[in-house]
């Protein structure tokens, strides 16, 4: 990697006392003054503000956009309503995952997509390689992306920006005053991702941070928050070699879509391995790369993510195991510095999601 | 940081008790670098350590840091309170110690830094 990029909010992070570290070619805030654990807890109890401007934002538009999206992803888009966002994956010829992404319908012939920072150039090259004549890709490089996540997020939007999002459902998007506000995120909490023109980004950031309900949150807590939800992180829990079914992302696959790239290597295949949650039952912390063993000390897989769960106050992780061991409750061991630590396969998410629709369902 | 302690380049502090026991912990510099602490793996009491051996692990949210001993000897006590509250390490030198090691060779202490030398060392790192 040559130069590191900075987002439009870099100076604000420095001013807030952020510890900066490299991520996907960007200098990003890892955590701020209060530290990872407090930031994590703040998102679960109030509202955290994240700079995720390093992620890519693109429009895909044109008469052929729906069939194109149904070719590069295994999902269905024909019936997706305007303003509806879907989580999905792009697949390669062998059925592996090029990237996971959010695709939102803007109008009949236009979709917005948010792609991972570390995959941005790879994804765009991949899309352009497969682009039919009647679809074009537009990069929104002049827009920043700010995530406001937590149970107080809706209240903050109302109080600070005078935006009433109470009618906006989970996985729904609206345009307002040059902002693109989507009710979704990577934390399992209610919240929003706000796409904003770069030249307005730091004003918006400062305004939101002025609320007593809001604190800045770095990438480290973003990682522990998503881990508790069992959300995969590209390059770790999913990659070019994991299929959507192995990754336990079969739910993104649309009924009847058998024409997506790599379908022949995904559909109808017997799963040899599967992505699972892992919960340590003995003390310790298991991290990415730790071997997973059965009770005969045979290696049956490895962790692809792992760490301390601030909510559960225990060590959790994700990884791939031989399909025979994938059932929740299966007793396993995780090897840390040569010691086998007792663990079990856990259902994902580790804690219930509190996104808007799941809140409604619980009421 | 107290003046009467010894320090290592690996950011451990040692307090010498009764002439032949080293109480060992990690310095504020190491604590800051690690961030929020979530787990401490302690050695067994009675374990014989060689000079330079890794004998404990301090886990933060971000990473696992192995703790090394600059002195050879036997572990005669460990701070079990850290199991329930790893953040105690940061609270004070009295409460945040990790292990007590009975010195095999008191001469092991000779190469260690005093407070002034350690301060100079850490300021050269930033």
Automatic annotation (TrEMBL), chain A:
Residues covered by the GCVT N-terminal domain: 9-254
Keywords: Aminotransferase, Methyltransferase, Transferase
Catalyzed reactions per annotation: N(6)-[(R)-S(8)-aminomethyldihydrolipoyl]-L-lysyl-[protein] + (6S)-5,6,7,8-tetrahydrofolate = N(6)-[(R)-dihydrolipoyl]-L-lysyl-[protein] + (6R)-5,10-methylene-5,6,7,8-tetrahydrofolate + NH4(+)
Residues annotated for substrate binding in this entry: 193
One GO location term (cellular component): glycine cleavage complex
Keyword Transferase found: yes
Cross-referenced InterPro entries: GcvT, GcvT/YgfZ/DmdA, GcvT/YgfZ_C, GcvT_C, GCVT_N, TrmE/GcvT-like
GO terms for MF: aminomethyltransferase activity; methyltransferase activity; transaminase activity
The protein's enzyme class: transferase
Enzyme Commission number(s): 2.1.2.10
Keyword Transferase: yes
Residues in Aminomethyltransferase C-terminal domain copies: 273-350
Gene3D superfamilies: Aminomethyltransferase beta-barrel domains, Aminomethyltransferase fragment, Probable tRNA modification gtpase trme, domain 1
Biological process terms in GO annotation: glycine catabolic process; methylation
Family: Belongs to the GcvT family.
Entry protein name: aminomethyltransferase
Organism: Micavibrio aeruginosavorus
UniProtKB/TrEMBL annotation, chain B:
Names of the cofactor(s): (R)-lipoate
Cofactor note: Binds 1 lipoyl cofactor covalently.
Quaternary structure annotation from Swiss-Prot or TrEMBL: The glycine cleavage system is composed of four proteins: P, T, L and H.
Protein species of origin: Micavibrio aeruginosavorus
Keywords assigned by UniProt, alphabetized: Lipoyl
Gene3D superfamilies: 2.40.50.100
Function: The glycine cleavage system catalyzes the degradation of glycine. The H protein shuttles the methylamine group of glycine from the P protein to the T protein.
Entries under InterPro entries matching the protein: 2-oxoA_DH_lipoyl-BS, Biotin_lipoyl, GCV_H, GCV_H/Fam206, GCV_H_sub, Single_hybrid_motif
SUPFAM superfamilies per record: Single hybrid motif
Secreted recorded as keyword: no
Family under the similarity heading: Belongs to the GcvH family.
Protein name per UniProt: Glycine cleavage system H protein
One GO cellular component term noted in the UniProt record for this chain: cytoplasm
Residue numbers of N6-lipoyllysine PTMs: 62
GO terms, biological process: glycine decarboxylation via glycine cleavage system; protein lipoylation
Segments forming domain Lipoyl-binding: 21-102
Keyword Glycoprotein assigned: no
């Amino acid at each position: 990697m040559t130069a590191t990029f900075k987002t439009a909010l870099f100076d604000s992070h420095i001013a807030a006392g952020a510890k900066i570290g490299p991520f996907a070619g960007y200098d990003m805030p890892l955590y701020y003054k209060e530290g990872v654990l407090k930031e994590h807890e703040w998102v679960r109890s109030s509202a955290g503000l994240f700079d995720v401007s390093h992620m890519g934002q693109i429009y895909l538009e044109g008469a052929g956009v729906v069939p194109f999206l149904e070719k590069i992803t295994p999902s269905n888009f024909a019936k997706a309503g305007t303003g509806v966002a879907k989580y999905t994956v792009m697949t390669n010829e062998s059925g592996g995952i090029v990237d996971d992404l959010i695709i939102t319908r803007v109008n009949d012939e236009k979709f917005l997509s948010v792609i991972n920072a570390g995959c941005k150039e790879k994804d765009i090259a991949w899309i352009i390689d497969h682009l039919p004549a009647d679809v074009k890709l537009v990069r929104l490089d002049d827009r920043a992306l700010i995530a406001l996540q937590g149970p107080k997020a809706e209240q903050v939007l109302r109080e600070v920006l005078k935006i009433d999002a109470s009618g906006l459902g989970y996985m729904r998007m609206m345009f307002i005053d040059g902002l693109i506000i989507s009710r979704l995120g990577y934390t399992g909490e209610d919240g929003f991702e706000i796409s904003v023109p770069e030249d307005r980004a730091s004003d918006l950031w400062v305004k939101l941070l002025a609320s007593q309900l809001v604190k800045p949150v770095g990438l480290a807590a973003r990682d522990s928050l998503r881990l508790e939800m069992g959300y995969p992180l590209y390059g770790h829990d999913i990659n070019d070699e994991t299929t959507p079914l192995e990754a336990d992302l079969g739910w993104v696959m649309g009924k009847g879509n058998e024409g997506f790239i790599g379908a022949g290597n995904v559909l109808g295949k017997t799963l040899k391995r599967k992505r699972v949650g892992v919960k340590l039952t003995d003390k310790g912390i298991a991290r990415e790369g730790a071997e997973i063993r059965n009770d005969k000390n045979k290696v049956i897989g490895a962790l692809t993510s792992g760490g301390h769960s601030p909510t559960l106050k225990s060590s959790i992780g994700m990884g791939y195991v031989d399909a025979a061991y994938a059932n929740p409750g299966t007793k396993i061991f995780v090897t840390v510095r040569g010691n086998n630590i007792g663990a079990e396969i856990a259902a994902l998410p580790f804690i219930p999601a509190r996104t808007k629709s799941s809140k409604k369902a619980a009421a | 940081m107290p003046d009467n302690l010894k320090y290592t380049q690996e950011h451990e502090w040692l307090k010498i008790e009764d002439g032949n026991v080293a109480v060992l912990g990690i310095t504020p510099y190491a604590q800051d670098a690690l961030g929020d602490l979530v787990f401490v793996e302690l050695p067994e009491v009675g374990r014989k350590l060689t000079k330079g051996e890794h004998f404990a692990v301090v886990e933060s949210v971000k990473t696992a840091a192995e703790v090394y001993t600059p002195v050879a000897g036997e572990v005669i006590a460990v701070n079990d309170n850290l199991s329930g509250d790893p953040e105690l390490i940061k609270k004070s030198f009295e409460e945040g110690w990790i292990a007590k090691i009975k010195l095999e060779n008191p001469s092991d202490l000779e190469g260690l830094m005093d407070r002034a030398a350690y301060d100079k060392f850490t300021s050269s790192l930033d």
